[in-house]
Design brief:
Shape: elongated
Mean pLDDT: 79
Oligomer: single chain
Number of helices: 3
Strand content: under 5%
Low-confidence stretches: none
Radius of gyration: 19 Å
Distance between the termini: 40 Å
Helix content: over 70%
Number of domains: 1
């Protein structure tokens, strides 16, 4: 059991899990961002709000 844990690289697992989570969330949010940009004019007043909305 110790040999199995010794050979694992936990940082590699964390980075790959983080990367896949970022990709999935980007794909899920992208259609809403596109629809928002198509149907609303983006100006200086609401640009920060949109960045916060879709960035978080």
């Amino acid at each position: 059991m110790q040999e199995l844990l010794k050979d694992e690289n936990p940082m590699k697992n964390i980075v790959s899990n983080l990367g896949s989570a970022m990709l999935i969330s980007f794909i899920l949010v992208l259609p809403f961002a596109i629809l928002e940009s198509l149907f609303n004019t983006i100006n200086k007043q609401n640009a920060l709000g949109l960045i916060v909305l879709f960035g978080l």
